[in-house]
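Second attempt. The first submission of Putative ribonuclease H protein had a stray character pasted in from the spreadsheet, which I only caught after the job came back as garbage. Lesson logged: always re-copy from the clean sequence file. Corrected sequence (735 aa) follows.
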Amino acid sequence: MHPILWPKQLSSQEGFWVKLSDIVGLASPRWCVGGDFNVIRRSLEKLGGSRLTPSMKDFDDFISDCELIDLPLRSASFTWSNMQVNPVCKRLDRFLYSNEWEQAFPQSIQGVLPRWTSDHWPIVLETNPFKWGPTPFRFENMWLQHPSFKENFGRWWRESQGNGWEGHKFMRKLQFVKAKLEKSIKEEILRYFEKFYTSPSGESWRVEGLDWSPISGESAFRLESPFTEEEIFKAIFQMDRDKAPGPDGFTIAVFQDCWKVIKEDLVKVRISDFRPINLITSLYKIIAKVLAGRIREVLHETIHSTQGAFVQGRQILDAVLIANEIVDEKRRSGEEGVVFKIDFEKAYDHASRGLRQGDPLSPFLFTIVADVLSRMLLKVEERNVLEGFKVGRIEQGFPTYNLQMIPFSFPALGRRTMMTLKNVLLVFGHISGLKVNLDKSNIYGINLEQNHLSRLAEMLDCKASGWPILYLGLPLGGNPKTSDFWDPVIERISRRLDGWQKAYLSFGGRITLIQSCLTHMPCVGEGKRDHLVNWDVVCKPKSRGGLGFGKISIRNVALLGKWLWRYPREGSALWHQVILSIYGSHSNGWDVNNIVRWSHRCPWKAIALVYQEFSKFTRFVVEDLEGLMQSFDRLHISSSVPDKRSWSLSPSGLFTVKSFFLALSQYSESPPIFPTKFVWNAQVPFKVKSFVWLVAHKKVNTNDLLQLRRPYKALSPDIYYFNQQRWIGFPKEHL
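This time the job returned cleanly.
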């Protein structure tokens, strides 16, 4: 194990990672290094986030090149703070170790210890973290900083009464104080969490004067009707049979496999048996699942069109498209505006009448609560206090008061606007229990000077930040042609790949992991490996000798084609109206104008480029042919029966990403001769199939191939092994 401390002299910092890499190469295979590296690796390792800097890239390259494992930090997120009122916190300290160390100490965990005087928190690497028996009492000196500790300590000391000699009485007093201290700590923790989970006392707030969209009478009747056997059956068989059992000890697999035995008794369970904490038994999970299915079917009738998450018929990516388009349109117009990005305090847990995160009902109840905020802001806009963005050729206003973002324009950028917005958020927090964390919320300016933006941020008690930002997990407001724009995407992929370091998978296991978890990303092993097979061959279907991954660029085109398919079918959707307002209609009357000459930042430009390929596989279907023939005489076409577009690659006439992807992936050359059935239909483990696939391609690292690829790792061609009067040189024919 080697300790490390980042050098303070600038001359010593140059080439530091190269020197440390040399030490790694000279060290024993079981190697560990730990200390203050004075650099973060991921943006999440800094409070409030950070952009990807060159020093972060160098540090990440050092870890990857040396094949070191970066263990997650337990019990804390950061190890350093500047100890200011508005602190800067980072994770500068860590332990890194090799795969051999991991094999020797597979249970290693990395944690943080209490800080004494330094601005760094000590870190510890435990190689044997198992705890045998109860943890003994240990006094923490930080408890002395509590303002009422000395007063309580004195009172507890005087309350203790004991008999016997003085030494015995003294020990009894210490034991009495210890018991009181443990009880006091438990009560303090209980009071802390009561703030989050207890409904506020006093007169409850009410929401009046808002415009609601009630559900239909038929939908209301369907919500209140008794559960049917079909609903329960569907809910049970949609659940994961391999999830851990509840406190009753039974897994969902029992209910699925024994459905015919239990269904008669299960259907008799009444709705009154439902409990909000639905982890008590598997029965309550089923009830919550059925209720969630019913709410999902009617939620779109009452939730405002600005809300896209968890609503049937809407997609959360619609909000990302709208946000990118209106921000880019606002920049192009030259008008001033701001975007306010909301941060909720423990969003799912704070809502009144809410459930734990992970409950099937939780996202739908959260959407209903968030809809109140949207309608409150719309009401304020009706009174001309706030003004949403006006975009497009017809200067139509589009409010995007969704779960995270509130845009408003000049001239509404004044003190009155800021105070109104702040009051609305505070009132909403009192009504719902879903409080907005202004300290972590951010405001972003469009065509606005930084001084003006900072003044607006002070009025809202939030932060003034710059573009680009992450909105619903995707970049917003940046330039896709710059490398910095894609830093969050690269970092996210890197975090996913970090988990592979401790997964000792065979070649077949890595293929399975790519196909199931990582959406066909390139195969990455535990260290540097030879690229045995060309990537173009790997992407081909299995029938053509590949692994069926498919090219990511073609898959992206197929996914973009889905937007073109949805556009004419969702004419009333908010995202459709935004795109139509900005780009106008196509001459065919169905599609949007696909000639996008301006900004490279707007995502619809990339979607429009797919139109030529997409249009090859579409045709128009007239639902009422007889009515059409009669209309020729009257020169009038009835609009009561809607026509529709059909997808020629699907028997149902509906668009699928898979069919478009396969059409774009057609190969002009004749299929190669490859033993597909022999390789993939054999009744052997998948890792054996993957090895046979390499053999069939003659890509196994035999000694003669190593002589060409990595001679320094291969046996010398002059060295052979003599065994029973046979010279064996390990060529590919030996297999």
